[in-house]
Specification:
Radius of gyration of chain A: 21 Å
Oligomer: heterodimer
CATH class of the largest domain in chain B: Alpha Beta
Strand content of chain A: 5-15%
Number of domains of chain B: 2
Number of helices of chain B: 15
Largest interface: A-B, 70 and 69 residues
CATH superfamily of the largest domain in chain B: Type I PLP-dependent aspartate aminotransferase-like (Major domain)
Structural class of chain B: alpha/beta
CATH superfamily of the largest domain in chain A: Type I PLP-dependent aspartate aminotransferase-like (Major domain)
Shape of chain A: globular
Strand content of chain B: 5-15%
Radius of gyration of chain B: 21 Å
CATH architecture of the largest domain in chain A: 3-Layer(aba) Sandwich
CATH architecture of the largest domain in chain B: 3-Layer(aba) Sandwich
Distance between the termini of chain A: 58 Å
């Protein structure tokens, strides 16, 4: 079957997940894209321009995945990378020395590390701002600003950025807009439809969904950025391997069903935590008390599966982590298994303590990525851990 | 057998036994593929040594330890491609830094330096890295490294590693050596003074034209720690499945390289006397200008070489008439591949630079596989004869 067509794009999301244009192998009719574990391609004619010559530049299995995510995000072109950080690194490699970035202040720790160490040495400077406040974003503008980088809901405190408002302002100033859409996935939120130029994913999380593939994806909104991104992807070679491209597609087919089930449980967990006497603040955009909930509902169709909550102290947090029986205590999120993590010592360990505290990532904060286990089992388990 | 005594084994034995005793639970002699991204912490603040697969992953670690040991380095890093490995290394540098790089370099390296690194203010000068006077005259106060390919690709120029790495040490700059074409089976640059070794493991280390991968080996604690930080932060890591496939390929590296070398030497000698061939570039031939240096620093020769036909019109029909040998980009696999550098691997290098070093429209690169040499010679000599007949209008 050929490239994804208009017909594919006009269908409902659940249908797109299953019928994306490359789900059937044209040569054999096989019901799954073959794993083309080949690094190079025989060139039948020196003058003919074949679609594939070398896997770093293009591979049919990876291409199927790249077209798949572009279709889901409503972009013109997709790119698959070796990890979420490889995708984010590639996006920043579109810049040059002397450029300036405005980035959301509670950005993922790995992105913070990239911007504050490696990119700084390349003389790309970043201002981290509270993106829930558009005036603060505006105040960070400099003559050399090139990019506005958003993450909404943010990690781990799930703060909400108004994508359309920030993007409209960025366009007035010719700035490139990027959104890390890992927490929502295109099932819930499609930033390109709100005017964003580049969408980024740690596909290791909900898109892959099984804690078994490390991968990153990028989708661009137009051909011009698409060509620049292609040059960077091919030039740096930080591409996703063939077998993992296939595994990721396999995971994505169940995205909608997984997200729906994750969310039902996450809502229950968040309400339960909010009413629990041993728990302080609960962060979940599905709670009525959540700041930014109105904006979130305007731009997203759901609330996701990550709930953060404060148990008051490092000591209490450690007790909960030691006593839980069902969730994995691990970094990462977005999987069939529930994963509990402690941002202060895990995902945000790269951030200096004072910066971390300023951003609400306290010593008592725990992040819960709700899996597909039965929610009653998860609540019972968490109750005994909180009682300790 | 203790780890120390295993490390004292000959390289063939170490290659054949990569990962064979690392699996503690079942004793599996082939290390398992840990297709996992996250690792359960026994308790908070405690780790099994593995937290998140980008940072460290069990299957990738066996590969990384193996290549570090084979190259006599201190740490190994596996990346998603050879170019990803190079980009990770180049992230050591900062705006304003300058590099000295082999003149006859891989087109992808040239593109990375000129199209991407240059935007971040990292500049490069291309010189014959075997020429100490040229190195000295292009050295600047902001020069941070010399990047050496030896042999170069496709013209097979040789750099005396001991001499140039000693020069780099004196200048207090890094020496980075691309060891893709010889592999640690034939050449170990760190033993000759290099700080960093890089591989496109897609080539001989993988060896089957089925895995895209890059490897980095560093010498010294500080440099190894810096590289670990960059490897994790940039995240261009190799996945578990491909890490396993690469180790599987490396187990036969020794026997493959011996056969590649034998076939390449036979083929190069055949072409050297062919009437339609003007010159053959292969350091395994005594006529190669740096045959002595090559024989001193390497225990053998690679499986690729280049040759120049005496008429550019022969190229197209030769590529059309080869049947056993595939016309494709890449090298280092069990299958023989023919590449036309001017339009394939080196298309990104401006024509004036290509001509200056001799990568012109009469040059073909031949990655000789492990098929029977007589079949290969028959295929190529038939293709050249048919091509010659075509241009003569017979």
């Amino acid at each position: 079957m050929a490239e994804p067509t208009r017909t594919h794009a006009s269908r409902q999301f659940a249908t797109k997940l299953i019928h994306f244009g490359k789900e059937i192998d044209p040569a054999t009719g096989a019901s799954s894209t073959p794993i083309y574990q080949a690094s190079t391609f025989h060139q039948a004619d020196v003058d003919a321009n074949q679609p594939y010559d070398y896997t770093r530049s293009g591979n049919p299995t990876r291409q199927a995945l790249e077209d798949y995510i572009a279709l889901l995000e409503g972009g013109t072109r997709g790119f698959a990378f070796a990890s979420g950080m490889a995708a984010i690194s590639a996006a920043f490699m579109l810049l040059s020395a002397g450029d300036h970035v405005i980035c959301t202040e509670d950005v993922y720790g790995g992105t913070y590390r990239l911007l504050s160490t490696i990119m700084t040495r390349m003389n790309v400077e970043t201002t981290f701002v509270d993106m829930t406040d558009l005036d603060k974003v505006k105040a960070a503008l400099k003559p050399n600003t090139k990019v506005v980088y958003m993450e909404t809901p943010s990690n781990p405190t799930l703060r909400i950025t108004d994508i359309a408002a920030v993007t409209a302002w960025a366009k007035e100033h010719d700035l490139l807009t990027m959104v890390d859409n890992t927490f929502m996935t295109p099932y819930h939120q499609r930033p390109i439809e709100l005017g964003v130029d580049i969408v980024l994913h740690s596909a290791t999380k909900f898109l892959g969904g099984h804690s078994d593939v490390t991968a990153g994806l990028a989708v661009v909104a137009n051909d011009d950025i698409g060509q620049q991104m292609k040059a960077v992807q091919n030039g740096l070679g930080t591409i996703l391997g063939v077998s993992d491209s296939w595994l990721l597609m396999r995971g994505m087919k169940t995205l909608q069903n997984r997200m729906e089930a994750h969310e039902i449980s996450a809502k229950r967990l968040a309400s339960w935590l909010a009413a629990h006497p041993a728990v302080g603040r609960v962060y979940y955009p599905g709670l009525e008390s959540h700041p930014g909930r109105d904006i979130h509902e305007k731009q997203s169709l759901g609330y996701g599966a990550v709930v953060s909550f404060d148990v008051g102290s490092e000591e209490r947090a450690k007790q909960v982590l030691a006593k839980v029986q069902i969730p994995l205590v691990a970094v990462s999120l977005g999987a069939v298994e529930s994963i509990l993590s402690y941002p202060a010592m895990m995902s945000h360990a790269a951030m200096p303590r004072e910066v971390r505290l300023e951003r609400g990532i306290t010593d008592g904060l725990i992040r819960y990525s709700v899996g597909l286990e039965n929610i009653d089992d998860l609540l019972e388990d968490l109750e005994q851990a909180l009682q300790g | 057998m203790s780890e120390q005594s295993r490390n004292d084994l000959k390289i063939e034995s170490r290659l054949a036994q990569i990962g064979s005793i690392q699996e503690p639970v079942t004793g599996a002699v082939s290390f398992p593929i840990y297709q996992a991204t996250a690792f359960r912490h026994p308790k908070l603040g405690q780790s099994t040594g593995f937290d998140y697969a980008r940072t460290k992953s069990p299957t990738r670690k066996v590969l990384e330890d193996a290549i570090a040991q084979l190259e006599s380095g201190d740490a190994g890093f596996a990346c998603s491609s050879g170019m990803a490995a190079l980009q990770t290394i180049f992230a050591l540098f900062s705006q304003g830094d300058h590099l000295i790089v082999s003149l006859d370099l891989y087109g992808g390296t040239y593109r990375l330096l000129e199209k991407i690194m240059s935007r971040f203010g990292v500049t490069a000068t291309y010189v014959d890295t075997n020429d100490l006077d040229a190195l000295e005259s292009h050295y600047r106060p902001n020069t941070k490294a010399v990047v050496i390919e030896t042999p170069t690709n496709p013209l097979m120029m040789i750099t005396d590693l001991e001499k140039v790495c000693a020069w780099a040490k004196k200048k207090n700059i890094l020496s980075i050596v691309d060891n893709t074409l010889l592999t640690p089976f034939f050449q170990r640059p760190i033993e000759l003074g290099a700080d960093v070794v890089i591989h496109s493991a897609t080539k001989y280390l993988g060896g089957h034209n089925d895995v895209l991968a890059g490897l980095i080996v560093t010498k010294g604690k500080e440099l190894s720690e810096q590289m670990a930080f960059l490897h994790n932060s940039i995240g261009a890591v190799l996945n578990p499945q491909d890490s396993w496939l690469l180790m599987r390929g490396m187990k036969t590296l020794a026997i493959r390289m011996e056969r590649h070398q034998y076939n390449a030497t036979r083929m190069a000698s055949f072409l050297q006397t062919h009437p339609q061939v003007e010159s053959v570039y292969y350091p395994g031939l005594e006529s190669h200008p740096n045959y002595d240096v090559q024989s001193r620093q390497s225990s053998g020769n690679t499986g690729i070489f280049s040759f120049k036909v005496n008429d550019a019109r022969l190229i197209e029909p030769i590529l059309r008439h080869i049947e056993l040998i595939a016309f494709a980009e890449s090298l280092g696999g069990v299958e023989s591949l023919m590449t036309y550098p001017a339009v394939q691997t080196h298309a990104d290098i401006p024509e004036e630079i290509r001509r200056q070093i001799g990568v012109d429209d009469r040059l073909l690169r031949f990655s000789v596989g492990i098929e029977h040499i007589e079949d290969l010679i028959a295929d190529l000599s038939r293709a050249i004869a048919l091509a010659q007949a075509e241009i003569e209008g017979v």
